[in-house]
Amino acid sequence: MPPRSGYEVVQDYLKTLETAPGVYRMLDSESRVLYVGKAKNLRARVSNYSRPGHSARIEKMISQIASMMFLTTRTETEALLLEQNLIKQLKPKYNVLLRDDKSFPYILVAKDHGFPQLKKHRGARKGKGGYYGPFASAGAVNRTLNQLQKAFQLRDCNDAMYSSRTRPCLQYQIKRCSAPCVGLITQEDYAVSVRDAELFLSGRSSKVQEDLAAKMMAASDEMEFERAAGLRDRIKALTEVQTAQGINPRGVTEADVIGLNLEKGQACVQVFFIRANQNWGNQDFYPRVAEDMSAAEVMEAFIGQFYSTKEPPRQLILSDDIENLSVMELALGEKRGDKMGRKVEILVPQRGEKSELVAGAVRNARESLARRMSESATQTKLLQGIADAFGLQAPPARIEVYDNSHIQGTHAVGGMIVMGSEGFMKNAYRKFDIKGDDITPGDDFGMMKEVLHRRFTRLLKEDADRSKGLWPDLLLIDGGAGQVSAVDEIMAEHGVQDIPMVGVAKGVDRDHGKEEFYRSGKPVFALQRNDPVLYFIQRMRDEAHRFAIGAHRSKRAKAMSATPLDDIPGVGASRKSALLRHFGSAKAVSGANLADLKAVDGISAALAEKIYDFFQEP
Description:
Elements (H helix, E strand, L loop, with lengths): L5 H9 L7 E6 L5 E7 L2 H6 L8 H8 L3 E6 L3 H15 L15 E5 L6 E5 L7 E4 L5 H15 L6 H6 L5 H4 L13 H15 L3 H17 L3 H21 L8 E10 L2 E10 L2 E8 L9 H12 L8 E4 L6 H12 L8 E3 L4 H39 L7 E10 L2 E11 L2 E2 L5 E4 L10 H19 L11 E5 L2 H14 L6 E5 L10 E4 L2 E4 L6 H29 L12 H11 L2 H5 L3 H5 L6 H12 L2
Parallel strand pairs: 7-10, 10-11, 12-16, 16-17
Antiparallel strand pairs: 1-2, 1-3, 4-5, 4-6, 7-8, 8-9, 12-13, 13-14, 13-15, 17-18, 18-19
């Protein structure tokens, strides 16, 4: 019996499909999700796929359909939210996919202390205080924090450091903190500075600057010139914040400005964050798209996925309209948690200040995409150069580079970095804590064998048929003939000898430019000193070295700060910190009596007994 076509599969499902809103999934013969979509009426929407007449891309997708899955929802809004969550989770081949979905930093004025702390914050908003953002990058936050500390002199130290101070720190000396830790400012005066900082972050910067200017003039009139100079410097710091922010729109209080540029099957989306009438930076994104996708389709998919893990602003200002505008407004309103049922307003302005903002975002998107396409072309040439240099049948789509780091065998760590067609794939990096008890300390060959053994064991378990794109097309090993021989043994043991593997050794005098390349059963060779492919390999090798050293240092630092308290069940980071603050050292904790342990803040009587018993055991 011949296999059924995709159209026949869809037609079979139509017979029993409901007319309710919901989400549908299309799967291939191996149950891999091809596409996720949402519909106001599932039967009507899915029936579109039961007849020919689509673009070549959609026709190809339909031809691969072997089965479908459906989930009904109460409303179209729920279907939209579910669709975007499934796309992010399943990453279907034929959907628009936002690949770079990181969180954005905020400025937090923490108010769980009598003298609030000013600091950078990422993640869930669990702490008490005022959150201001998002900012486009950590750099944008750091620059703003730097100037705010000059202007308002609020502390940035944590509570533990604050409570341990007996004299002002360097921040006070350089006039970036008013030293509340040692009583050089009253709580009332500090509260005024906190209020002014929050007014500035809320967009009322003119009032803050007017107040500071009036105080500066008063100090000057009273011949308190040092105080007047300090106030002048604070005004200057606020002006520098506004200058660094660039365009600060008057008519836009809170919005994200989103500009889209589509070109040759690639897309760039530029997002400007406007909060409190201030531009808090911009960020570009490169969603995965196809050539036949419309601007409306890409924009709608981007918005749904981008705000699935972020709180949307009150207003979105777009360069291109979207199809389900009213549904998206309601969905984003629910995301904001608006109990009044108000929608997030979505605009596509044609004139005025908002139109100028959108034009700026689109211009940035166009320039960013042009740069990326140029870099991609260069990357393609370099990967072809790699293939030519090492005699590969095709340019490698995934290169894995391995390096080890240790100090005389201690705290040994293996690092793996990945290079792809679009550059370093940092979400694919892996580190390996060297665990082998049979490895002699400092045995680089043994360490490399353990790392590759664990890597191939995992690959064979997770992607045995090599269909998920997790397997490398080329392995680069930091080392010479010994490392290559060791890795060759492991590859033979796992039956993966079809993957090309090259050892990169430093060569004569261990100088850059004199690298030698080792391959199993082939003579050693080198590339010309000025060959771009050599620079490319050096960059990958140096990145692997940087990553491995970072992992090693982290492991070493953790080991150096370890204490016997880490082995006591129920003693986490906060209780460990409380014990060390109270007694001064882990040794003092081990010798403490039960009554003293019970006196520590946060240590219950039961836990105090557990700690006491732990140290009394032989």
